[in-house]
């Protein structure tokens, strides 16, 4: 039987952006209503983000959240939001220098 993990070690599963699909980290800056959010992307561009249909009622996004976005191929100033990180996941990303 495997030994249990020590109490001070927390196991966190974190989804990272898939560079083949063009995904990247972003911060939610401003809620605009109608499932649109202004986001500051890791490449330094501010885009208008749209919450995808699957996420609309499952994940509530607030200003300051770390998210994964996919820029549109035909309009570079817009993107789709595909994932929101929880606070423990965000802390793990900072500890491991992803953001």
Automatic annotation (TrEMBL):
GO molecular function: RNA binding; translation initiation factor activity
SUPFAM superfamilies found in the cross-reference section: Nucleic acid-binding proteins (SSF50249)
CDD domains: S1_IF1A
Cited InterPro entries: NA-bd_OB-fold, RNA-binding_domain_S1_IF1, TIF_eIF-1A
One matching Pfam family: eIF-1a
Coiled coil: none
Source organism, top-level taxon: Archaea
Gene3D superfamilies listed in its UniProt record: Nucleic acid-binding proteins
Keywords from the named record: Initiation factor, Protein biosynthesis
Span of domain S1-like: 12-86
Family label: Belongs to the eIF-1A family.
Its job: Seems to be required for maximal rate of protein biosynthesis. Enhances ribosome dissociation into subunits and stabilizes the binding of the initiator Met-tRNA(I) to 40 S ribosomal subunits.
Protein name: Translation initiation factor 1A
